[in-house]
Each structure stands twice: as structure tokens, then as C-alpha cells.
Amino acid sequence: MLVEHLETINSSVAQFAADVHAGLDRPGQKELPSKYLYDSIGSTLFEAISLLPEYGLTRADERILRRHASDIAELLPSPLIVSELGSGSGKKTRCILEALCKREAISYYPIEISATALASCERELAGIDCISIVGIEREYVDGLREVANRRAPGAHLLILFLGSTIGNFDAGADQRFLQRIRDILLPGDSLLLGADLLKPLSQLIPAYDDPIGITAAFNLNLLARINRELDADFNLRQFEHVARFNEDTNSVEMHLRSKESQTVTIPRAELMVRFSHGETIWTESSHKYSESEISILAGASGFRCEAQWTDVEWCFAENLFIAV
Ligand code: TRP
Q1: Considering the chain, what is the average pLDDT of its residues?
Q2: For ligand 1, atom 9: residue with the closest CA
Q3: Counting atoms of ligand 1 from 1, which one is nearest the CA of 165?
Q4: pLDDT higher than 80, residue 14
């Protein structure tokens, strides 16, 4: 195995400060970009979330990939290079790469903004023969352009976008994002897309608000990160994690709610923010798809949905999109 690291372009503290300023200094609903949830503490907490009995999403994703890895491989052209948007720990990817490695040597390009996640992905996949890993510490679209530039003539590209991160885009932004991905691809390239499906609220809410509080810690860590990196004085005990289902958008919304009226200073973002009692900061939404919505999404963004695999225990779909 070969492990190479492409130059590190971290989103700088200045960018973080600017995004925090923009999100908290706006009229109406305050918000923070969800990508900042994943510093090294956040990524570690998310790993723990994926082990929670209440959060069936990651295991469903893994089960489908394990069960259908060779079916998926059979539908893919050769020669093939593989890139993954948000590699996470790399555990889910292992079975796909192993199925592909049975027929050819594979170059694998995980794209991650978290250096911690990238390192653990590289460790996890290190044992597979016939694979070379090139970790790319970039934003998804930039990273993917880099991968596309490196492709040899005649090679097909398979993009993995697992774990239903697509559901974390705002309404309409999921399609626009897939279209940007499609623009970098060639006809016949493929995208394996994980998407969480609509399910009863009795199952959904505990998945995003677990009783031992790991999800709450994951969400609150964003305020702790602002304290650590921007010298802010958020009192974490005066905020609480809230997960609620928005029936209009079919998404679980995550917020941080101020338990009292208070003022927070964020020196490195040159900002003083007032919170009223009960006011929230919106940190993430997780859209839940219907099966037909996914095929429509494919068509609207320049793909066709070639195959769909679902899990019976936890309503989740793995979708193979082919660029047209
Ligand atoms: N991509 C994950 C999801 O939508 C992210 C996630 C899980 C999350 N639990 C969370 C984000 C809690 C914020 C808060 O399922």
C-alpha cells in the first residue's frame, strides 16, 4: 500500500471567525455551518454516535455495502479509480474496495476536511493489498477537481458519497451540489450515494437526541470550539441540544437553545451576541428522502439511478447513479 498526502489547506481560523460572525450576527434565525462540527473532538464524538443503538444510519449503510459489495462492483466499468467525499473512518469503504481489488489494483482518493478522519481512514484501509491511498485534505468540490485532473485517459471514476451527508444540504442545495459533482465527471462515471429514508418519528428523534447525550455533546462541542479557537465565552451549561422534525421539509433539525437571556462575546470574530430566552442557533438539518425522490434527484442533476439497495432494519438506501 502507498499512502500519500496532498498538501494541507485547512480552512483557516480567519474563515471560521468570518463564518461565525455571519451566522450569529444576522436578523432572524441564527445559524452555524455544520462543517465546523467536525474538529477532532467532533469527529470522535460522531464516531461514537454511529455506535449508538438509537442511531441506526451508519450500521444500515455498512450492512448494505457489505451485503451488496460484489453486486455493486459488477455494475461498475473498468479501469476504475475511486474517490470518496468525506471518508469518515473508512470502515464502510473497506468492503467496496476489497470487492473492486479482486479484479484490479485501485487508486483511492478520500477527500476530507478533517485531518483526524483522514488519518483514521488511512489506518483502517492500510491492510488491503492492491490499493494506493491518496488522502486529500480539501473541501469536496475542490478535492474532486484535483482527483479528476489526476485521472489517466480511459479511466472511469467512482465517487462514494455515503452516510447520507447529502441529506445535510438545504432544500434544493442537494441537487445543486450533485450537479456540481456531475460537471466534474464524464458520461459513464458513477456515484454511489447513501440516503436516509423517511421513517417514523419514534425512531427518528432518538437517533438525533440519544438518552446518554452523545449527540448533545457533539452539537455543543461547536460552541466549545468557538470558545477554544475564537476566545469566546459561551457558557455551555446555558445552552441545550434540541432535535425536532420539520414536517414541511421532511428533515430533522438540530439546534442549540439558549436556556436564558444572555450575551456572549467572541473576540476573534469581533462580535458580541445577544440571545433571548429560548432562542436557538440552527446547526444542521438531516433530510429524510422517499425512494422516488432519489430517482428524481438523479435525473435533475445529470445522472440516472441505475440501481438502489435498501436495508430492512433501518430505512436507508444505497443508490448507484450513472452520469449521463
Ligand atoms: N450526517 C449525519 C446525519 O445527518 C450528521 C449527524 C448525526 C448530526 N447526528 C447529528 C449532525 C447531530 C448534528 C447533530 O445523520
Answers
A1: 93
A2: 208
A3: 1
A4: yes
